[in-house]
Amino acid sequence: MNALDEITESFSRLPGIGKKSAARIANHLLKADPSFMERFSQQIATLQSRIKPCPVCGSWTESDLCQVCSDMTRDRSTICVVEQAQDVSTIDNSHEYHGLFHVLGGVISPLDGIGPSQLRIDSLIQRVKEGNVKEVILATNPTVEGDTTALYIQRMLADSAGDSCTVTRLASGLPVGGDLEYADRLTLARSFRGRVRV
């Protein structure tokens, strides 16, 4: 295996990149400007030492606190719970939500050996107890594991916070511009359960 095959293999291990895309990237890099390659390799080499999880919410940050946690203009009475750190920017970029976040670091998945203790659920409960949190929004993915995790968190918050904190779940159902004939049964079922008055 030569150097080109090795780098192609490494790129193909990244999510969403197949063998053909990996080969295209590798070939592009061979033709790239050497100064770009130097900077790019330095960025990759130092990425894990520069970026770390925020100690409060678990999102990625280069400073002591992430941008969301350090922004005092945000609504501190609301916490949106997400599975992964990249979900924070996805929701924040919508400009529809202005509260705080909490990253779980995954979902409950017994088949993969992931239980509640491997996730950041205890620190969420602690944040709700210590802060003046009035609403927790569960924004886990609409999968079996995501729903199981959301239900577990809902029960834990009911036991620890009682009626002082409202727990909500992001609506799920038909996407805008979607076509009914392509919707699966679960999506349709969620759409009917989550219907609203017009």
Structure description:
The protein has 198 residues and is of the alpha/beta class. The chain is built from eight helices and six strands. β3, α5 (86-92) and β4 (99-103) form a beta-alpha-beta unit. α1 (3-12) crosses α2 (19-31) and α6 packs parallel to α7 (144-161).
Helix-strand string: HHHEEHEHEHEHEH
Number of strands: 6
Q: Structural class, from helix and strand content?
A: alpha/beta
Kindly, what is the distance between the CA atoms of the first and last residues, rounded to a whole number of angstroms? 63 Å
Helix content range? 40-55%
Principal-axes geometry comes out as globular
The side-by-side strand order for the widest beta sheet comes to 4-3-5-6
What's the tally of helices? 8
Proportion of residues in β-strands:
5-15%
Mean pLDDT over the residues: 91
Major sheet details: 4 strands, parallel
- Which residues sit in consecutive blocks of at least 5 with pLDDT less than 50? none
Radius of gyration equals 21 Å
